[in-house]
Amino acid sequence: MEHSDPGANPEAPLGALRDQIDAVDQEVMSLLIRRLELVGEVGKLKGEHGLPIYAPDRERSMIAARRAEAERRGLSPDLIEDVLRRCMREAYAHEKNLGFTRQAPDLGPIVIVGGAGQMGQLFGRMLRLSGYDVRQLDRDDWSRAEELLDGAGMVLVSVPISDTVEVLHQLPPLPHDCLLVDLTSTKVAPMAAMLEIHPGPVLGLHPMFGPDVDNLAKQVVAYVPGRIPDASTWLLEQIRLWGARLHEISAEDHDHAMGLIQAQRHFATFADGLHLVREDRSIDELLSLSSPIYRLELIMIGRLFGQDPELYADIIMASPDNLALIERYHDRFAEALEILRAGDREAFIARFREIGEWFGAHADRFRAESQSLLAHADAQR
């Protein structure tokens, strides 16, 4: 029986195998290029026929079929799904640049108030890709406001939360059939102001994403119907074509939900950051000792502080209701701390189970969904 020479140099056979892997990688890249070419053809057809770039039923069925095929062929279904989802993200970004069917072909110019801001630029770009005439009205343009707004089919207000109501009241009278829309992350006060200053159609929008997204596929846009809902149908349909999911909600329900989703969550992250600063341990040391889940949590805390502090101050302090909500959060934190002070293990377990019952089946689903996020965080080490 022959044995390999323990003193033999493994570099030669390793080099040959690595060359073969490199060749396979070249084939994979060629196939990805071909896939994007086919995506481009799909995008053109969707644009011609007014179809949204995101088709959830098609995506679900395709992923399920590929997972089943991977299992039959001895591949990890999770690996195949990860690769395909990354390909689809690139495909959505590629399709977006091909343009969209214009849903209101006879609409007059669209004026974005605050169009130089990041969110204003994003919506301006999407509207131009859809064939609309888009103008900007920014801080230095108010002397030309009447000229820019003349004949406007839609006015889209995208300014800081703290300035929105004041800016709305500064607008000159708009054409009666002009659609007035805001993009603010609070809705009660802006909706009231828009309905007060404009007798025509009104719609409230809240994009549930930041301006740094490369496309709107799978993003959520909340909308609050205002006056003459039929006059805003074209805009909602346009947003659907961009790939976003729309969620209708009242202004009051929206602001309460945003208190939980945004104000309280951002404040808790702010407090986490403040605590880390006061403890003053090396971030590199914390990362080197982190499990994937703590690394991801630390990433999410740090992500907040790489952004505009004025934006987050506005979000958190936008409403007295947010303060009341955060005070209730403080009280519940104190309740949990008291369990810890008392060393009451049974009370902790009881509360833990109570919370788990509230989450119900979502707890197991969230645990499964988080595995890919944790794996991705671990891969970035």
TrEMBL record:
Enzyme Commission number(s) of this protein: 1.3.1.12, 5.4.99.5
Keyword Isomerase: yes
Residue span(s) of domain Prephenate/arogenate dehydrogenase: 108-370
Pfam families, per the entry: CM_2 (PF01817), PDH_C (PF20463), PDH_N (PF02153)
The keyword Isomerase appears for this protein: yes
Keywords tagged on the record: Isomerase, Oxidoreductase
Coiled coil: none
Database matches in SUPFAM superfamilies: 6-phosphogluconate dehydrogenase C-terminal domain-like, Chorismate mutase II, NAD(P)-binding Rossmann-fold domains
Span of domain Chorismate mutase: 8-99
Single Gene Ontology MF annotation: chorismate mutase activity
The Rhodanese domain, residue ranges: 109-151
Similarity comment: Belongs to the prephenate/arogenate dehydrogenase family.
Protein name: Bifunctional chorismate mutase/prephenate dehydrogenase
Species name: Ornithinimicrobium cryptoxanthini
